[in-house]
Write a structure and sequence with these properties.
The chain is of the alpha+beta class. Helices cover about 35% and strands about 15% of the residues. It has a four-stranded antiparallel beta sheet with strand order 2-5-4-3, covered by helices on one side. It is elongated and about 65 Å long.
């Protein structure tokens, strides 16, 4: 939508991959329905000592980086991808079962529960994982207040390209994107709305119809107050 309005779009070639999404193909019991979104196996599993193996049970990350499984997510994702292509396999294995069972269950209860639904006990069996597209680093080019080159158009969050991430997103930047820049974008957009002489009701009526107009005005008022 922003592109059609001639807003500048930047860095769309930079897509961050999460290195370890649950690979349903490798589960003992396949899910009955295809997942709408990948189930991500947190990087904390590797941080807590999880080890990556190919299906030949060969540990491979030391071949790609001296930090092995603790390398940045883009390095790990590329290492896994290289293994999959070289070996013609569809997933690798993330093993944490050498750790204490109680600690695994207390640290990763959601992962343990989701895997158990599919017949996999992560305290005894490795987790099948594969990289998954996770975050678009690029988007609509934004200034320090979320402003774009299109007057009156402000952006924040995943749609925006603020330059905070560079080519490789840092997970902690989510707070900056979702909170700091969202707050910065809201203030000038409210000012613009109040100072604008355009008849906004015409466009709202065209999109929503008269029956929804009152509800939308109430919703916008509440959001602006919040």
């Amino acid at each position: 939508m922003a592109h059609r309005a001639q807003a500048v779009i930047s860095n769309m070639e930079f897509v961050q991959f999460h290195p370890t999404a649950l690979a349903d193909e490798g589960l003992p019991i396949k899910p009955k329905k295809t997942r709408e979104n990948a189930f991500l196996i947190t990087e904390a599993v590797r941080g807590d000592g999880g080890i990556l193996y190919n299906l030949g049970m060969e540990r491979f990350m030391p071949l790609y980086d001296e930090r092995a499984e603790l390398a940045p997510r883009d390095v790990v994702a590329r290492g896994i991808d290289d293994q999959l292509k070289k070996r013609n396999e569809n997933y690798v294995l993330l093993d944490i079962n050498h750790k204490n069972k109680e600690k695994i269950l207390s640290h990763f209860p959601n992962i343990a529960s989701e895997c158990l639904k599919c017949g996999l006990d992560i305290t005894r069996q490795p987790i099948p994982v594969v990289p998954a597209a996770h975050y678009m680093c690029g988007g609509v080019r934004a200034g320090l207040q979320g402003e774009t080159n299109v007057r009156g158009l402000y952006v924040a969050g995943e749609v925006a390209c603020t330059g905070l991430h560079g080519a490789n997103r840092l997970a902690s930047n989510s707070l900056l994107e979702a909170l700091v820049f969202a707050r910065r974008a809201v203030k000038p957009s409210i000012h613009h709305l109040k100072s604008s002489k355009l008849d906004h009701s015409a466009s709202v009526l065209q999109i929503a119809g008269p029956d929804r107009l009152h509800q939308m005005h109430l919703g916008v008022k509440q959001w602006m107050t919040y």
